[in-house]
């Protein structure tokens, strides 16, 4: 039995100077450039990242390792935010949102307040105990999916099926030229693992008799922390 940690987890090595990883949605390049310049003046290294902002994060959020204790730097960072018109940041220290930072690294997440938080879709999902296929579903940020699955005739051979995807509320839609669309409904469930019951995002097919057999499988991701 195989279990997979979320592949979008941000595992970042420490460095000599604290590093702020800026993730933003809805702000102009000019505003973010000004912010980065001010953060660098505090002595931080700054890197921009295009990962998703967890839907349960505040519009201004800082994610960090629980061992981060330079509260003076945090105060200075928050002062920069409020001076430039951002709200004071909510602090997340214990891997909330499935985002992890190591040592002197911080994640600064900024969402323009007029933008509603969107549910995040994992970049990879996996089948579990599916009688039709054993497969991995990759969902790119460009809206393209790649489904790698076992050849039903030759189990040692892997096949790849591609198309486009969209996500609205809790509905994942996979579109292809060869077959009808398939809609998956996302639910939060507990799944049995070797470490006991763990929370999972489970995507269940609405059409359980789809002509493309791998579309009849459930796809999921299990959170093992």
Describe the structure.
- The protein folds into two domains: 19-111, Alpha-Beta Plaits (2-Layer Sandwich); 124-222.
- The chain is 12% helix and 37% strand.
- It is built from two helices and 13 strands.
- An eight-stranded antiparallel barrel has the order 6-7-8-9-10-11-12-13.
- Helix 1 links the parallel strand 1 (19-25) and strand 2.
- Residues 1-15 have low confidence and may be disordered.
How would you summarize what this structure contains?
The chain has two helices and 13 strands; from the N terminus they run E-H-E-E-H-E-E-E-E-E-E-E-E-E-E.
Q: What's the β-strand tally?
A: 13
Please give the domain count. 2
Q: Give the termini separation.
A: 17 Å
Helix fraction? 10-25%
Report the uncertain regions: 1-15
Largest sheet, if any?
8 strands, antiparallel, barrel
Largest sheet: spatial strand order: 6-7-8-9-10-11-12-13
**C-alpha Rg (nearest Å):** 20 Å
Structural class: mainly beta
**Helices and strands, in N-to-C order?**
EHEEHEEEEEEEEEE
Note the beta-strand portion.
Answer: 35-45%
- Mean model confidence by pLDDT: 85
- Counting DSSP H or I runs of 4 or more residues, the number of helices is 2
Shape: elongated
